[in-house]
Design a protein that fits this description.
CATH superfamily of one domain in chain A: P-loop containing nucleotide triphosphate hydrolases
Order of helices and strands of chain A: EEEHEEHEHHHHEHEHEEHH
Number of strands of chain B: 4
Strand order of the largest sheet of chain A: 6-7-8-3-9-10
CATH class of one domain in chain A: Alpha Beta
Helix content of chain A: 25-40%
Number of domains of chain B: 1
Number of strands of chain A: 10
Largest interface: A-B, 26 and 18 residues
Distance between the termini of chain A: 45 Å
Strand content of chain B: under 5%
Bound molecules: adenosine-5'-triphosphate, magnesium ion
Number of helices of chain B: 11
Largest sheet of chain A: 6 strands, mixed
CATH architecture of one domain in chain A: 3-Layer(aba) Sandwich
Order of helices and strands of chain B: HHHHEEEHHHHEHHH
CATH topology of chain B: ABC transporter involved in vitamin B12 uptake, BtuC
Strand content of chain A: 25-35%
Shape of chain A: globular
Helix content of chain B: over 70%
CATH class of chain B: Mainly Alpha
Number of helices of chain A: 10
Structural class of chain A: alpha/beta
Distance between the termini of chain B: 49 Å
Oligomer: heterodimer
Radius of gyration of chain B: 19 Å
């Protein structure tokens, strides 16, 4: 499996339109097994659209997406999830009026076996004790950091073979951002490849094995995490360097 | 003359029965509104269709299973299946192509579907009243001069069981949770691996099946049926759904029962010719002072 699937996700020349406006103008990249790959870019660059195109929410008009050797370009979102490609969306998108436990249960909607679902909830509560303490609370009443943990936990419920994370650090205090970064590192150590979209480039490049920089629907730069960290353009545009 | 207590008991029963009809139908309005924000104006006609399906099945079965409760229950199950499927198909063929279209197209389509159902049944029945003749034993529990009939008690029991089952389904099964989640955030539901259209279809099936039960219950209770019976009933049940808070399932149950009880009280106080005025005044008062309804969160969109 590791030879065949060394490349977990292969994105080839995808173009995505909102009506007549192109949001992605033919971008290509790979995520390899055990990697953390990051997509950087400023507001409106097309980062979220890239993730939504991969997970099937805004299907590509052109190009090809291959996941674990299978062409998923034309699959509806719910079938892509069944294959283990899990997208944790921007803004967390917790079901506000559902409890923490119910949010998690829905993360494993595709699972037939309710016992297994309950077992995974226990795992999530072990990983995130703060969620366990709030399991009966409505999702909307959690703090931002807790909601992000719930969003990640809900993604883990599906047993991901690849996690797409869209701006997990958004709007969180530095201490919580560090906590989230640790969680991402740990998940990756456990063997889950991760495609991380961030505006917090410092955090993302600290974690990533490889990164791509997106600008108005095009990839304009790529390289290893260390290469990008020391790239002048990146420092200027995204790391707030002088 | 009845004593005050007897009058109250009698009107309480009348109100609960009427409220059961309203609640069973209001549930369909509310579930569908919750999930796709559509005021499904064809829903009253599903109730009417359910009554006719039940009527025909009941007639066919009379020779073999008789025309008492056995026949009624089987007719009810048949009407649930037929109307459930009908609701599902209407959703699939008429509404689904318009899910992404402006809300108003969906609403107008629902009115069109209502006209189709209504006119179809009118043509089939020649526009005539049908009489539902059953041999359910008369009698019941007698308190002084008031008798609560077995029919009333059984109909209330059926309603209660259906509401409990529905609450269990929505509250505890994964499909019920998916339904609630869809009414909050569809794209995110798709990221959970939920086939959103399938759950919408299921919602229509359940809502329509519940309306069909009300249809067959009304056959038993009133003894007659006609093609326009869904019109006023639909509007009243919709009123009940708004009073309870459209989109809210407990709200539809509460709104239905409350409207039934208030109508019974209003009829007792002012006479039956005033009962519709009563219901709609209540609707207007509700819309002015608490537009989200008693248990609802979403305000109904202005059309
Ligand atoms: N639903 C939509 N309809 C129309 N245009 C959209 C839609 N979503 C995004 N866009 C446009 O597509 C482009 C890319 O948006 P996208 O959300 O992918 O950017 P992003 O890189 O994630 O930005 P941010 O950092 O602000 O989240 C933007 O120009 C945006 O205005
Ligand atoms: Mg974004």
């Amino acid at each position: 499996m590791s030879e065949m699937h060394d490349i977990v996700l292969k994105v080839e020349a995808i173009e995505t339109y909102y009506g007549k406006i192109a949001a992605l103008r033919g971008i290509s990249f790979d995520v390899r097994d055990k990697q953390i790959v990051t997509l950087l870019g400023s507001n409106g660059a097309g980062k979220s659209t890239t993730l939504k195109t991969i997970s099937g929410l805004t299907p590509a008009n052109m190009g090809k997406i291959t996941f674990l050797g299978e062409d998923i370009t034309k699959l509806p979102a719910h079938e892509i999830v069944q294959r283990g490609l899990i997208h944790v969306p921007e803004g967390r998108r917790i079901f506000k009026d559902l409890t923490v436990t119910e949010n998690l249960e829905l993360g494993a909607f595709t699972l037939k076996d309710d016992k297994e679902r309950q077992r995974r909830i226990k795992d999530v509560f072990e990983r995130f004790p703060r969620l366990g303490e709030r399991k009966k609370q409505l999702g909307g009443t959690l703090s931002g950091g807790e909601q992000q943990m719930l969003a990640v936990g809900r993604g883990l419920m599906a047993g991901p073979k690849l996690l797409l994370l869209d701006e997990p650090s958004m709007g969180l205090a530095p201490l919580i951002v560090a906590e989230i970064a640790n969680i991402i590192r740990q998940l990756n150590d456990e063997g889950i490849p991760i495609l991380l979209v961030e505006q917090n480039s410092k955090m993302a490049l600290g974690l990533a094995d490889y990164g791509y920089v997106l600008d108005t629907g095009n990839i304009v730069l790529e390289g290893s995490g260390d290469q990008l960290k020391s790239d002048e353009k990146v420092i200027k545009a995204y790391l707030g360097g002088e | 003359m009845l004593s005050a207590g007897e009058v109250i008991l009698q009107q309480l029963m009348n109100g609960l029965i009427l409220g059961s009809f309203y609640a069973l139908i209001a549930l369909g309005y509310s579930m569908v509104y919750g999930i796709i924000k559509l005021l499904n104006f064809a829903h009253g006609d599903i109730y009417m269709t359910g009554a006719f399906v039940g009527f025909f099945v009941f007639g066919i079965l009379a020779g073999t299973v008789g025309s008492s409760w056995g026949g009624v229950i089987l007719a009810m199950l048949a009407a649930m299946c037929v109307c459930g499927l009908l609701g599902f198909l209407i959703q699939l063929l008429a509404y689904r192509p318009l899910f992404d279209a402006p809300r108003l197209s969906l609403l107008i389509t629902a009115i069109g579907v209502s006209l189709i159902l209504y006119n179809t049944v009118m043509i089939i029945t020649n526009g005539e009243y049908m009489f539902f003749q059953h041999s359910i034993p008369a009698g019941g529990l007698t308190f002084g001069n008031v008798t609560i009939t077995w029919v009333q008690l059984v109909l209330l029991a059926i309603t209660a069981v259906l509401m409990l089952v529905l609450s269990w389904f929505i509250g505890t099964t994964i499909w019920g949770k998916a339904m609630r989640a869809i009414s909050l955030d569809k794209p995110t539901c798709r990221l959970m691996g939920i086939n959103v259209n399938k759950i919408i279809g299921l919602t229509f099936f359940i809502g329509s099946a519940l309306a069909a039960v009300a249809g067959v219950m009304s056959c038993v209770y009133y003894g007659s049926l006609h093609y326009f019976m869904g019109y006023m009933m639909g509007i009243k049940a919709f009123t009940a759904a708004v009073i309870g808070g459209i989109g809210s399932i407990p709200g539809a149950m509460l709104g239905g029962l409350l409207l039934g009880l208030l109508e019974a009280a209003g009829t007792q106080a002012l006479g039956s010719s005033w009962k519709d005025v009563f219901a709609f005044s209540l609707l207007i008062i509700m819309l002015i002072f608490k537009p989200t309804g008693l248990l609802g969160k979403t305000e109904i969109e202005r059309m």
